[in-house]
TrEMBL record:
Keyword Hydrolase: yes
Domain Alpha glucuronidase N-terminal: start-end pairs: 43-151
GO cellular component: extracellular region
Domain Glycosyl hydrolase family 67 catalytic: 156-468
Recorded superkingdom: Bacteria
Name recorded for this polypeptide: Xylan alpha-1,2-glucuronidase
Protein family according to the UniProt entry: Belongs to the glycosyl hydrolase 67 family.
Residue ranges constituting the Glycosyl hydrolase family 67 C-terminal domain according to the UniProt record: 469-692
Top enzyme class: hydrolase
Length: 716
């Protein structure tokens, strides 16, 4: 009401008086540290006012907000978001949009619903009615919610509504965030402060941030949240925590988000007092069934369990001589038709001198077809571990009788934490668009297509930092994850542009160059950290900074030297038939592209091949010189990003501009450090001189090797 009064009365107040009111209001806002000041908290939902011409054009397509049919908590959430967004963007309240369920459109508009026939849940159409006004139409209420957010996104990105006609539906059923948050508030691999979940105060107090978090998720189509770490505490399954979780589930339901739990496989022992957690033991099965019943009594739409089993010390069915399928199916039976088990494929055995990247395939491929219908296998995008670049995981396409989910990491454990600007949409798009080579009759079968019965999970990058994600540009990764899980065909550039327009400025003089930089930023990280297909060269435990020399860790596959295999004669991991033959896990039509070092995409060169230092790469340079050139290219790209950002100061509010500039300065320093330390080490190993004209590392190799960071964040 206050907003409406000010807006409608404004016309009667003399101009000078209006200017004074605005000035006084701004001063008060500054003095009071106004929460509306730009600190990044509003994410891409900040709904900045439109310029006058666009506001008039948009306004012409709106009318009094209206809902055809009965209201529900979900349609109320949609309507409240529409008012919030349009009030802020148009500077006045009262105008809005018609929301209509397909069957409830008035006669003259019934054709609007035609394209919705057969669309999956959540699909919507935004189009003009017979009178020119805009309507959001959907088969279900969640579609109305998503359509409302899509309409706001459309307008907030700077487009007008004159010819709008958009029909869209989610490509993948599950679009999930996985939080690696512990009950005590620590976030494993978190770089944005403590957990957003204050379990201690739940269920009595629900932080309003958790509603904003759910709005942000709903705005990009995320519909599932695993609230706790895969390295799970059994505490989360106790009655006390189920009550807390129920409060969260109630709060998020109107925004279309279901809660899920990471389940500790040994819970029947840890909590139930049983002597075993053997999945074939009747008492164990009973315990899980009772636990599931207890959860569903409190949370009727509970999503299900995510399980990390027999991996990195976690308990699992193999502790009892059972298979992963035995474990997953036991939990699936406990949930029954009510929910789903998501079983992680991220496993690797200790001690063996085989190739770690082969292990998940070896373990799970034989189990194809053995999982219950409510089990989904969750596979990381690549076969190693969320590296800056990896080939896609060979399990995609190789498990035709198993529902699959792709796991991506939004938090940047291996890409410079929250401080490096690395837009991950290109990384995910690369994986999603890869042809697995398992299509029928020579047709392509992309990784994204193999997820049609599963979905995509992203390890969340949120925390208690005011801007949620530590770095402002890290918000773009949360955003891009949701957008790609909704539509894996979206281009990274498109996502970057719409995000930048909503988050910073709609001016194409800003969005175009910024999107271009964002799209190139991931390759920059690859170049200054792990060029030419190198992987896992990060510092021990915390994974901060370069450590290609580390070779003394107890498990062979924890050592960077295991992956770079650099010695006097050459560098790289031979995964061809003369080496580990991991290549054979891919379909022949795919493997052939990586088999020949001379013709392959050199971004994967040292992932698949061990080559002499004087091997001639496709540029004509020797391998050593090419490596140095790639490190230099990465460093130069970061220098250019920092310079570009300085030039764009006039488009961004001072505080966020400074925040980003500070982080870019850190990234610049660390990119140089990565390059210098890596060149110092590899140069020493091969006994190679620096190519002429190349900058000498700032310090000695000893200096780089002596760096220690026991205080690096996110390390359990
Ligand atoms: C690794 C992380 C570790 C996770 C593990 C996983 O370093 O903290 O627990 O992945 O995905 O990348 O289970």
């Amino acid at each position: 009401m206050i907003g409406r009064g000010l807006a409608s009365g404004a016309g009667q107040v003399p101009v000078v008086a209006r200017i004074c009111i605005v000035l006084i209001a701004s001063l008060c806002a500054i003095c009071a540290g106004d929460a509306r000041a730009e600190d990044g908290h509003a994410l891409w939902l900040r709904y900045a006012p439109l310029d006058e011409a666009t506001a008039i054009a948009v306004n012409a397509r709106l009318g009094p907000p209206e809902l055809f049919g009965n209201s529900s908590p979900m349609t109320q959430a949609a309507q409240s978001e529409l008012s919030r967004g349009f009030d802020a963007m148009l500077g006045q309240s009262g105008r809005g949009v018609i929301l209509a369920r397909a069957g409830q459109l008035p006669g003259g508009d019934s054709g609007l619903a035609e394209p919705l026939a057969g669309l999956p849940s959540g699909g919507y159409r935004i189009a003009q009615r017979h009178d020119g006004r805009v309507a959001v139409v959907a088969n279900d209420d969640i579609g109305l919610l998503y359509g409302s957010f899509a309409l706001l996104r459309h307008v907030a990105s700077g487009a007008n509504l004159d010819a709008i006609d958009v029909t869209s539906a989610p490509a993948l059923p599950l679009r999930m965030l996985d939080h690696w948050d512990n009950p005590d508030g620590f976030v494993e691999r978190g770089y944005a402060g403590r957990s957003i979940f204050n379990w201690w105060l739940l269920p009595d107090h629900l932080d309003p941030r958790l509603i904003d978090y759910a709005r942000a998720n709903a705005s990009i189509g995320i519909n599932a949240v695993v609230v706790n770490n895969v390295n799970a505490s059994a505490l989360m399954l106790t009655p006390r925590y189920i009550e807390k979780l129920a409060r969260l589930a109630d709060a998020w339901r109107p925004l279309g988000i279901r809660v899920w739990l990471s389940a500790r496989f040994s819970a029947p022992r840890d909590l139930g007092g049983l002597s075993t957690a053997d999945p074939l033991d009747p008492q164990v099965r009973r315990w899980w069934k009772d636990k599931a019943d207890e959860i569903y009594r409190a949370i009727p739409d509970f999503g299900g369990f995510l399980v990390k089993a027999n991996s990195e010390g976690q308990p699992g069915p193999q502790d009892y001589g059972r298979t992963h399928a035995d474990g997953a199916n036991m939990l699936a039976q406990a949930l029954g038709g009510r929910g789903t088990v998501i079983w992680r494929a991220f496993v690797y055995a200790s001690g063996s001198e085989t190739d770690r990247v082969k292990l998940a395939y070896e373990e799970f491929k034989p189990l194809d077809g053995k999982f219950a219908s409510n089990v989904i296998l969750q596979v990381k995008n690549g076969p190693l571990d969320f590296q800056p670049r990896e080939p896609f995981h060979p399990l995609f396409g190789a498990m035709p009788h198993t529902r699959l989910m792709l796991e991506a990491q939004i938090t940047k454990e291996y890409l410079g934490f929250a401080t490096h600007l690395a837009f991950l949409a290109p990384l995910w798009a690369e994986a999603l668009g890869a042809d697995t080579g398992h299509g029928e009759a020579g047709r392509a079968l992309t990784v994204a297509q193999t997820l049609a019965q599963g979905g995509m999970a992203g390890v969340a990058n949120t925390g208690s930092d005011r801007n949620w994600t530590g770095g402002h540009f890290d918000q773009a990764n949360w955003y891009a994850f949701g957008r790609l899980a909704w539509n894996p065909d979206l281009s990274a550039d498109e996502i970057a542009r719409e995000w930048a327009a909503q988050t910073f400025s709609r001016d194409p003089a800003f969005t175009v160059p910024v999107a271009e930089t964002m799209v190139g930023s991931r390759q920059a990280v690859v170049d200054y950290m792990t060029p030419l297909g190198l992987a896992h060269q990060m510092g021990t435990g915390h994974h901060y900074g370069p450590a290609p020399w580390v070779s003394d860790l107890s498990r062979p596959e924890w050592n960077p030297t295991y992956y770079n295999r650099a010695d006097k004669s050459g560098i790289g991991f031979d995964r061809t038939v003369t080496g580990s033959d991991a290549l054979a896990q891919y379909a022949p039509s795919v493997a052939v592209h990586w088999a020949d070092a001379a013709t392959m995409d050199e971004d994967y060169l040292l992932w698949f091949h061990h080559l002499q230092w004087d091997y001639q790469t496709q540029s004509g340079r020797t391998l050593w010189r090419e490596l140095v050139a790639r490190y230099d290219r990465g460093v130069a790209a970061v220098d250019a990003m920092a310079a570009q950002w300085a030039d764009l100061a006039s488009y961004v509010d001072a505080r966020r501009h400074r925040d980003v500039a500070d982080f870019l300065a850190i990234q610049k320093r660390e990119a140089h450090w990565w390059r210098d330390a890596s060149i110092a080490y590899f140069g020493a190993v091969c006994g190679c001189d620096l190519p002429p004209g190349t900058r000498t590392p700032a310090h000695s190799l000893d200096w780089y090797e002596a760096q220690r960071f026991p205080d690096a964040p996110g390390n359990p």
